[in-house]
Design brief:
7 helices, 191 residues, mainly alpha
Length: 191
């Protein structure tokens, strides 16, 4: 995909649509765009295969909105990223199905753990990024706001559709777990 995005950007520069000094910005933008498209298509395909399309849509919205703010693990290649993402989606479907009849107190336990981890570790930067302290505080606050939004929505959904309640709970827990995993990796890398 990197070669494809490079070729598109070079074509735009050659045709004087994009200034040459913006090469990296446009290349990154195309990579992010196509990666997102692949993620959405993968999510929808898994939802259709498992006959849980609504579940996977809620998973994607919850997981991606929280993870974009709190950070987390980044695979070394796009293919590893999408395989990991696919495994997380399927795990979310299975966990949501298995816990439908669990006590709501278990969900609150998962949410409490997620919130504690989020407050302590958000945001989690990639191994190759350096954190800007002012931005870290802002990202932490935004992460908590996004977490709060999905938690409140999950509580409302509990009374309407308890299956979606569990999808959101596990989506939040998945995003926060990946953030914590990245923090552990970063700490090992730094020592």
């Amino acid at each position: 995909m990197e070669k494809f995005c490079t070729a598109i950007t070079e074509m735009l520069i050659k045709n004087k649509v994009v200034p040459v000094e913006n090469f990296k910005i446009y290349k990154y933008g195309f990579e992010a765009f196509f990666s997102t498209i692949i993620g959405v298509v993968l999510t929808l395909m898994i939802g259709i295969i498992f006959n849980k399309l609504l579940w996977t849509v809620f998973f994607y919205l919850t997981f991606s909105s929280l993870r974009s703010q709190c950070g987390g693990y980044h695979a070394s290649t796009l293919i590893r990223c999408k395989i990991t993402f696919g495994i997380i989606i399927i795990s979310n479907i299975l966990l949501s199905a298995l816990t439908q009849n669990f006590s709501v107190f278990f969900a609150f336990f998962l949410e409490a753990i997620s919130l504690i981890i989020l407050i302590k570790y958000a945001p989690s930067m990639s191994l190759d990024k350096v954190a800007d302290i002012g931005n870290v505080k802002k990202q932490k606050i935004i992460s908590i706001v996004v977490f709060s939004f999905w938690t409140v929505l999950s509580i409302i959904l509990y009374f309407i559709d308890s299956e979606l309640f569990w999808v959101i709970i596990w989506s939040i827990f998945s995003a926060v777990t990946l953030m914590l995993y990245n923090c552990i990796r970063r700490k090992k890398h730094e020592s």
